[in-house]
Amino acid sequence: MTLIVSESPVLDPRTLAEALQLRAAHPEAMPLAGGTDVMVYLEAGVIDPPRWLNLWRLNALRGLSRSGDTLRIGALATHTDIGRNADAQTLAPALVEACRTVGAAQIQNRGTLGGNIVNASPAGDTLPVLLALDAVFELHSAARGERRVPAAAFWQAYRKMDLASDELLVAVHLPAPGAGDHTHYRKVGTRLAQAISKVVLGARVRLDAGVVTEARVAYGSVAATPVRCPKTEAALVGRRAGDLAAAADLVAQDIRPIDDVRSTAEYRRDVAARVLRGWLGTLTA
Amino acid sequence: MSQIPTLTPLSVVGQGLVRADGHAKVTGAALYVDDVRPEGCLHGATVRSTVAHARVTRIALHPEDAAAGVVLVTADDIPGENVVALMTDDQPALASTYVKHVAEAVALVAAPNREQALHAAARAIVEYETLPALFDAETARGNAIRIFGEDNLYAHITITHGDPASLFAAPPPGTRVIEGVYRCGHQEQLYIEPQGMIATPGMVDGRPSLTLFGSMQCPFYIHKALKRVLGHTDFNVVQAVTGGGFGGKEEYPSLVAIHAALLSLKTGRPVKLIYRRDEDLRATTKRHPMRGRYRSLVDEKTGRLLACDAELLFDGGAYNTLSPVVNSRGVIHAIGPYRCDNVRSEALMVATHTPPNGAFRGFGAPQAMWAAERHMDRIARTLGLDPIAVRRENLYRDGDVTPTGQTLKDVGVGIVLEAALERAEKPLPASQSQTRPGGGGAAARVAQGRGLALAWHGCGFTGNGEAALKGKAAVALEGRDVVVYVASTDIGQGVETIFPQIVAETLGIAVERVRNAPHDTALVPDSGPTVASRTTMVVGGVAEKAARQLRAALAAEVGFEGDFDAMLAARKSVASLRVQAEYTDDGSLVWDPKTYQGDAYPAFGWCCVIVDLEVDLDTGEVTHRRLVQATDVGRAINPVLCSGQLEGGALQALGYATSEELVLDAQHGMRNNRLTNYIVPTTLDAPEMETILVEIPFAGGPFGAKGIGEIPHDVPHAAVAQALEQATGAVLERLPMTPERIVAALAAGPTETQA
Fold first, then answer.
1. Among partner residues A101, A194, A199, which is closest to B437 by beta-carbon distance?
2. How far is CA B383 from CA A275, B377, B379, B625, B749, in A?
3. Cβ separation of B621 and A188 shorter than 8 Å?
4. A46 and chain B: CB distance < 8 Å anywhere?
């Protein structure tokens, strides 16, 4: 059979400190976690890195833990790890749902949340949920230690993110849902498994006495990056449950979909608004 | 419960035996072409055109590759004729002077490893003077820019039956004229492993020889094509384990084999040529797109067809391949399984500057019956009648005469219709579209629908094709075992299991003592190609005949006729005893290929499909929930494999219905040429399946068997369209019915639309 071959050397750190040093010393090295995106690029001839930085053995980056009001998810936690984690099921059911729609079982077993984030695909299934949940990314470098970036500031342009060449994504922090929070995840894919999204929605609305006090509406596959929808969100705040659906009319002003091999701009624009409208209509005081 | 005709299983035939090749496949022991690596093997790669129509002015290796010893093969290296011999000689093995479609093979390279070969092919220098290209079949027909012949038509057939012109000219009172246009796009066969072939030089009886080993349906197609290119026959062709063909491994492997052979000839080494999947998707044949224009005169109270006029326009692509056969089968099946005494059906196969379209399960019938079934629904809708009632009014009965003038007997269409309807009464499984992750939950607005469609499918070659071909099979006693020699290949449909079942039953011995020989042109006779729903019905029948002759030969040798093992015990010789039989025409079929009048097929299969689905009204996403099919198979030699064929074919048609679409670039090359973007159904997308085998035996087939390979792909897509209409009122008349088209049709409202 045909193997996907790279003859480039592999750097194989065992600790985070070692990994960060190697990352700084070899900025040309391609970080490798689950490999579910990288192997595809390699086979397609899109990349041919001179060196690999294998992160798979960094077990410290693998787990999920809850401390107080925050869920911390290690960057190497796989979609399966997250889907099966009791704290994630309680605190972030929309993320659990998203993880269960990634690829298929084999991809979920191997692909990591951190990989999904730094692959920075506009179609990443978990990314709109991270935006909707106000996720914060914990980045480390050997030279400058730790810094934190909110998801909303992380993806800057098509496949460009706020991540320096000597940094690694170490963890994702998710604040626990507040009282009155309602979340929603909707993936419109090309089929039921092994599907890249045409439109993917992550949304959160906080209701206080039937009135929206905070709103997050985020999409994938409708712009060059995963995006929040500021106009839609602003229109939702102050509205009363039962009268929210009209805010979805503003989605078209917040997104920039294109025609590509998977769908059309027109379909994406219409469907993005409709799936939001449908969900908003189910929210009652 | 009504009585569904079935046959009593025999001791071997009719038993759902485990497939002979199953264990090796599920354990990974089976060797596909890319699993084999002869010693000293070089790797080949193909230099492909980047434009649709051009004169080629220069072909050269990149200087670094030339310096590194990469070998280049062009048309100048061809010892014989530069042709892929098939129906006509229009397709060159290598496009040396003109390219007529994007991704056409211009030259070949060989290098010690695959990456080097692919790299050299990618950066080879090809210079073009580009020429204007015709991409649209309507425009290309008769255009001054010539692609094929005088008028850019590969084939043009008109069938006339009765006097439709007079009826349309003066419609009787109480009748209506109903017209519609129905379209289908390309479809990719998507076999498991991409095209691949290994050419290995050797010596046989002191003469240089060559062995071609690869993924294929038809070893003798390759043999015939290679003979013309090499100018001799000192070679043999051997089938590797092949993971599905669906027509995609019918004619295309001849080109791959020619290329591997040319590279081996120039280098003197074994050469392995394996396509990348993205290359395979861009370069290889697809199902023909079609536009069907239908006009019918019907009784306005009942929907009875009084006259029909159907025109099918197919896009053949840049070379002829097997397009005339697609045109032929399309036009014969154009009205569907319905009686109409006044028919004019016309089919045109047009040349365009697009990658050639070719063989694909159904051969024009799935396109023609998409149009026929959608038109039947249009008749029902226009007249305000129930679509099933209109079908019942029109479907064939014993003694009816088809548009080619064939009188039908043993018509099973009414039986399969009632059998499928009865089974569809079973309660549906619980809905999953609102409960699956990411499905929207309670927020999702969904509608349910059910659709039904009917098919007929001619088994075997059209008209006197089988009589002309004289397919052969041999059976040999080797020790206490029996070996079957056929060129019919196992492409997943079960030849390695079913042929031993037929022969073991005929001889009266255990099936474990019968096996197929390798499908090697040096060993097996020419049984004809593995196509056209003919392998079990026609070649299986020849194998049965050979087995009977083997019994007779053994009886003659031992002096008595009796139990096979008793005769074997009485045998003195230990030499192998081999007999060969061939298909013979009993003279009962009469066919005129000039007028397209007569007996089009020795037998017809009949099928009813019922699809239950759910559609998301916001997104147009379709969830196929259950597919019931009832099919007249004549006799199921192996009911498990038979059902598997039917279910796989139906699932392939569901992909054709709602997800499989080619997205084309400016040169009409496939843009979505990766498995992530060309959307075939996965297991999760597959509905629950209920498969009813109806057995109305065909006297001309072994133990009553008919061909069943293609019929399951004929109409599930039409049943889906009717189900969508029932669920939402939206009328879709173009394939595929993607969510994008469904949403557009829903927005247009419950009126007739041309999505």
1. A101
2. 37, 10, 6, 29, 19
3. yes
4. no
A86 Cβ under 8 Å from any chain B Cβ: no
Is B679–A191 a contact, with Cβ atoms under 8 angstroms apart? yes
Give the contacts of B267 (CB within 8 A, at least 6 positions apart): B42, B71, B110
A79 touches chain B (CB under 8 A): no
For the record, the structure tokens of A181 come out as: 């929070």
- A86 vs chain B: nearest CA distance in angstroms? 17
pLDDT of residue B464: 87
- pLDDT(B552) > 80: yes
| pLDDT of B121 above 80 | yes
Cβ-defined contact of A186 to B677 (cutoff 8 Å): no
The verdict on B27 touching A (C-beta cutoff 8 Å) is no
Q: For residues B312 and B331, what is the distance between their CA atoms, to the nearest angstrom?
A: 7
Kindly compute the dihedral angle of the four CA atoms of residues B711, B712, B716, B717, in this order, to the nearest 10 degrees. Answer: -70
Give yes or no: residues A275 and A189 share one domain. yes
CATH of domain B22-30+465-588: 3.30.365.10
| CATH class entry, domain B407-463+601-755 | alpha beta
By Cβ distance, the residue of B440, B679, B684 closest to A275 is B440
Could you say which of A128, A151, A175 is where a domain stops?
A175
Where in the sequence is the domain holding A228, given as residue range(s)?
A: 184-282
d(CA B234, nearest CA chain A) in Å: 29
Q: Please tell me the distance from the alpha carbon of residue A109 to that of residue A115, in angstroms, as a whole number.
A: 13
CB contact under 8 A, B437 and A187: yes
Contact B37/A at CB under 8 A: no
Query: What is the C-alpha to C-alpha distance for residues A133 and A250, in angstroms, rounded to an integer?
Result: 21
Task: Count interface pairs A-B at CB distance under 8 A.
Answer: 96
Kindly tell me if the per-residue pLDDT of B548 is higher than 90: yes
**Domain for residue A266, yes or no?**
yes
Give the burial string for A65-79 (b: 16+ CB within 10 Å, else e).
ebeeeebbbbbbbbb
Q: Does A190 touch chain B if contact means CB atoms closer than 8 Å?
A: yes
**Residues of chain A with C-beta less than 8 angstroms from the C-beta of B677:** 190, 196, 261-262
Chain A residues touching B115 at Cβ < 8 A: 5
Please determine, for residue B296, whether its predicted confidence score (pLDDT) is greater than 50.
yes
Q: Report strand pairing: B597-598 vs B591-592.
A: antiparallel
Q: What percent of chain B has pLDDT over 70?
A: 99
User: Residues A70, A167: one domain?
Assistant: yes
User: Per CATH, which fold does B34-132+189-283 belong to?
Assistant: Aldehyde Oxidoreductase; domain 3 (3.90.1170)
Q: What is the mean pLDDT of residues B525-539?
A: 96
Alpha carbon separation from A128 to A73, A227, A236, B719 (Å, rounded): 16, 7, 18, 37
Does the residue A138 lie in any domain?
Answer: yes
Q: What mean pLDDT comes out for the span B158-180?
A: 98
CATH of the domain at A104: 3.30.465.10
B133 vs B671: CA distance, rounded Å: 18
pLDDT for B753 equals 40
Would you say residue A2 lies in a domain? Answer: no
Nearest Cα to Cα of residue A204 among A229, A171, A172: A229
Assess if residue A248 is contained within a domain. Answer: yes
Residues A69, A165, single domain; the answer is: yes
Q: Based on the structure, what is the number of domains in chain A?
A: 3
Can you list the residues of chain A whose pLDDT is less than 70? 1-4, 285
Q: What interface predicted TM-score (ipTM) does this complex get?
A: 0.96
| B621-660 per-position pLDDT tens digit | 999 999 999 999 999 999 999 999 999 999 999 999 999 9
Tell whether A100 lies on the interface with B, counting CB pairs under 8 A. Answer: yes
> What is the per-residue pLDDT for B751?
57
Fold agreement between B22-30+465-588 and B34-132+189-283: no
Q: Do A1 and B444 lie within an 8 Å CB cutoff? A: no
Residue-range domain boundaries for chain B: 22-30+465-588, 34-132+189-283, 407-463+601-755
Tell me which residue in B438, B675, B743 faces A101 most closely, judged by beta carbons: B438
**Quick one: average pLDDT of B505-532?**
97
Same domain for A21 and A90, yes or no, is no
Q: Kindly state the average pLDDT of the residues B255-281.
A: 98
Instruction: Give the pLDDT confidence of B172-227 residue by residue, as tens digits.
Output: 999 999 999 999 999 999 999 999 999 999 999 999 999 999 999 999 999 999 99
- Closest to B618 (Cβ–Cβ): which among A40, A189, A275? A275
Tens digit of each residue's pLDDT (9 = 90 or more) over B76-111: 999 999 999 999 999 999 998 999 999 999 999 999
B679: nearest CB among A40, A190, A270? A190
Burial class (CB in 10 A: 0-12, 13-18, 19+), B333: buried
Closest residue in B to A259 (Cα–Cα)? B663
